[in-house]
């Protein structure tokens, strides 16, 4: 069986992802703490895994996505270099089947909360969403299946530190709770694909 580890920066993110996954869950959840330095430090605490995912809140760099939408990265960028998210297409399909509005594209990891004009600069470079933890974890996955699932909280039209952030956060938390069952089904899909590769 595929051993999936899901990394979440915050306690509420870890709780939300695990809350509806069901008995046995099918994956381990590791809280890394916020920011790339803490994510990198958490690598030594990860249990053995065959697939790795990052789940939590994120920000949209472009107009269109709404709080509560789910962003699944096609690659994770930092310092101009991208790491592909192998196997994440299947997870995006499972999230759509769960009734979530799923968006796909490049994600950039930064060491700080992105606001104002910086959103535009990162978007002009091709990124669609931003977080603070995924890049070190993407590198740790190497050639194994890797996915980033970010429930959108803030957008250029709805920045952080505004009253609407509370509503957006509640929507994003509901979306994260719906991600748990999809992550469990993702491990089943990966198992099935592995059996096909091995053959009868």
TrEMBL record:
SUPFAM superfamilies associated with the record: Purine and uridine phosphorylases
One GO biological process term: nucleoside metabolic process
Gene Ontology terms for molecular function: 4-hydroxy-3-methylbut-2-enyl diphosphate reductase activity
EC top class named in words: oxidoreductase
Signal peptide, first to last residue: none
Domain Nucleoside phosphorylase: 28-161
Record keywords, A-Z: Oxidoreductase
Pfam families hit by this protein: PNP_UDP_1
EC nos: 1.17.7.4
Top-rank taxon, per record: Bacteria
UniProt protein name: 4-hydroxy-3-methylbut-2-enyl diphosphate reductase
């Amino acid at each position: 069986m595929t051993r999936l580890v899901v990394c979440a920066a915050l306690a509420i993110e870890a709780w939300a992802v695990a809350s509806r996954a069901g008995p046995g869950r099918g994956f381990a959840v590791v809280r890394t703490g916020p920011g790339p330095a803490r994510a990198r430090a958490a690598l030594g605490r990860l249990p053995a895994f065959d697939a790795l995912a990052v789940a939590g809140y994120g920000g949209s760099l472009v107009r269109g996505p709404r709080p509560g939408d789910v962003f699944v990265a096609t690659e994770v960028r930092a310092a101009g270099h991208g790491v592909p998210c192998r196997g994440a297409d299947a997870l995006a399909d499972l999230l759509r089947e769960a009734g979530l509005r799923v968006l796909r594209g490049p994600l950039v990891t930064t060491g700080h909360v992105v606001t104002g004009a910086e959103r535009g600069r990162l978007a002009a470079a091709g990124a669609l969403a931003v977080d603070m933890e995924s890049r070190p974890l993407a590198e740790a996955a190497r050639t194994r299946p890797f996915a980033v699932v970010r429930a959108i909280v803030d957008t250029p039209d709805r920045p952080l530190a505004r009253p609407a952030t509370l509503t957006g956060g509640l929507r994003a938390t509901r979306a994260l709770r719906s991600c748990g069952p999809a992550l469990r089904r993702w491990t089943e899909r990966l198992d099935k694909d592995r059996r096909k590769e091995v053959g009868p």
